[in-house]
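Can't paste images in this forum, so I'm doing it all in text. The chain is below; anyone willing to post the predicted structure tokens underneath?
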Amino acid sequence: MMYSWIKAFHIASVMTWIGGMLIMALALQVAQRSVLERSSEARLLQAVRRWDQRVTSPALGLAWILGIALVYFGQWHAAGWLIVKLVFVLMLSALHGMQSAHLRRLADAPELATSALLKNSGLLTLVAVVVIAVMVVLKPF
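Text version of the structure:
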């Protein structure tokens, strides 16, 4: 029963984390295109940064803690699919850090160019989520 509770909260925290990453990807696209006037853009970026600090980043930490608990209780230590999943989760964690750092830098230098990696961070996030879902559900190896 405890495993099911941990799994439920793990899924909820992952959904919150990924949702936050997609919001940051969208904010980076808006900032790069300069669609909004600077004052509106600055308020948007500030709101996204606050959301990241208060919701997305804590959800990332909780997802890791609960995920490690699931590995322990489910005894998945040596599973091949888990290794692939962890590689993609590590890449998502790094991408989240890059998004957060770039949003923080944009507050000081709004004209700062966004890298191609960050411009495509929404798509990369979705691709990683699909790979992770396939690994978890199908456990192909």
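The mean pLDDT is 92. Residues 2-138 form one domain.
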